[in-house]
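Researcher: Let's run the pair from yesterday's discussion. Sequence first, then C-alpha cells, for each.
Model: Starting with the first of the pair.
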Amino acid sequence: MPSTTRQLPRSPLDGYAPPGEERPLASYSLLTSVFSASFVGALVAAHRAGYTLPQEHRVKDIVLTGLATHKLSRLVARDKVTAFARAPFTRFQEAAGHAEVDEEPRGGGLRLAVGELLVCPYCLAQWIAGAFTVGHVVAPRVTRLLTAMWSAHAIADAAQLAYSAAEKRS
C-alpha cells in the first residue's frame, strides 16, 4: 500500500501568496509590531514623565494634523528630493508628475516590506499621524507649528495645481 504523506505548511503564513510572488507577511508583522510598540511606548513614557492626554481634540488641530499627515507622507513616499532615503529599499521607475517619482520596492523579506511602506503614502500616513499624535501630548506647541507648516505646504500645492490647470484652460 503506497504511503500517503501530506506535506504540511512550514508556517501558517505559507501559501498566502501565489507561487513565485513574495508577500513578506512576517516582515509586515514585524513592522506592525514596531509601530505598535513605538506608539504605545511613547505614550507610556509620556505618561510616566507627567504628560497627560488632552481632554478634548480641537477641530483645528485635527484638520491641520490631517493635512500635514497627507503632505508629509507624500513627501516621504513620492518626492524626488527624498529619494535618497528610499533608495536602499526601492528602484526608480520614472518621473511622475509634479516633483514626484514612481518607484518599486526591491529585495526580499524585511527590505521588500520596508520598500513597500516607503513608497506608499497611505501606509506611511499611519506612522506620521502616530508621531503627530504623540507630539500633541508631549510637545503640542511645536506639533501645532509643524502641522501648520505642512498644512500650508499642502494648501500651496493645491493652489499651484489649480493655477496650472487654469493656465491650461485659458
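Model: Moving on to the second of the pair.
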Amino acid sequence: MYLNATFIAQMVVFFILGWFTMKFVWPPLMKALDDRAKKIADGLEAAEQGKQALDASSRQAADEVDKARNRAAEIISQAEKRSVQMIEEAKGAAREEGNREKAAAKAEIDQEAGRAREALRDQVAALVVAGAEKILRREINAQAHTELLSQLKKEI
C-alpha cells in the first residue's frame, strides 16, 4: 500500500509542478518567444522593404544614368554642330578675306598699270617732243607752243 500512497504523492507533486509551471514559468517563456517571433517578423518585413527600396533606388539610379548619358550625347551633338558651324564661318571669313585681298591686289595692279602707262606716255611724249624738236628745231619754238605740246601729250 505504500506504493499507492507514493504514487498518489508523486501525482500530486507532478500536478502542482505542472500548475506552477503553467502559471508562473510558461507565460514569460511564451511572451519571450512571441516577442522574439515579432522581432524576427519585423526584421523580415524591414528587410523586404529595404529590398524594395533598393530595387526602386537602383531603377531610379539607372534612369538618372540614362538621362545623364542622353544629356551627354546631346551636348556632344551640339558641340559637333557648333564646331561644324564655326568651321563654316571660318571658311566664309577666309573666302571673304581672300576676295578682299584679291580685289585689293587687283586694284593695286590696275594702279601700277595706270602709273606705268602714265610713265610710258610721259616718256613717249618726251621722245616725240625730242624727236619733233630735232626735226623741226628751226621752225618750232618750245615756249610758244607749250600748250600744243601738253595737248599732244594728253592725247598720246
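Researcher: Give me one sentence on the second I can quote.
Model: The helical segments are 2-135, 146-155.
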